[in-house]
Write a structure and sequence with these properties.
13 strands; alpha+beta; five-stranded mixed β-sheet
Length: about 350
Amino acid sequence: MKKGYKVTDVKRVKKIGVAAENLEELIDKSCKKLGFNVSCAECRLYVAEDGTHVDDDDYLKTLPPQTLFILLKEKEKMVTDFDYYYTMIRNSKKDYINTGLAAKDFLSTNFKEKFRVFQKYIAAANDAKTMLSQRTQDPGWFEGLEPSEKTKEQSMSKRVKERMRGYYYKTKSALQSSELYIHTKNGRGKKLVDQFLLDLRKLLELNKYNEGYFNRRDKDNRMCNENGLFECGGLWNNSKCIYDGEHVINPYRSREERIIFQTWNLDHKIELSRSVVPKILEAIEGLAKGKVQCISCEEISSEGFVEADRYYLQIFTSENLKLVHIVCHYKGKHNIQSDVYTLCKKCIN
């Protein structure tokens, strides 16, 4: 099954869309579309966000559709998104970042120290344009964005929707590559998975992809204050960030902060890949086998339903998502689990 990806070169000059079923096809098509005058064997593919080398089909299959890759020629060196954007900011805003010793220290330290130093420069940024909204009022903020993005709030809402779509496609890819989906007799597992995904998609569309999370004008849903200032929520198992006053950012203030905000994560407290998706599969498998453990009455019945809304809350909403600075994004296993959310016919009526 082919998936769609985005691919660019190390200079980010041209970004292309490629549909591919495996790594060889992805590199071959990308090489041709980007106009590389070399053989595919001389090219290497990396994940733009963290610089991970994609060297086999098994790893490629774990990545969601629309993942951005960097295709390198033989002698080119990988540059992650963070280092690329930092260099761009440093070169274009010499009055914004001291390019002397501070920049040297910044580039030579680990991520925690990088962001601690960088935060000092962000704190000194000019607030004069923060509350401006229209493209015509602050054109520099919109540099590199689509012409259709007319206000800062519209642009920030779009960024949330992109993240939500990513979570949906990651879930979809994991479910549709499962044994349950591929090998269940009579295709029942496939039908149940497809129905679950349809229900999940409807809930996402009904709630407009939770676009208000990054929109400072959405009083009911925003994760920031009225000015657009976001604060880190801290590690997944902490009630607040231990770096009091340091892990804050206002992407509405400047283009630089908007770019840096891309490195902030919406962290799943109950992990999507390690816990939520396996429990979804367990729930659907129970339906496929006619053995439904009802979450309400706790009885076992032959028919029932998966509570898609419960999984929707865990995948897409602030009930389980916490906005965190990259330093507070813990990638190890979280000691908290999802559950099998199924209802029997009696309890759903």
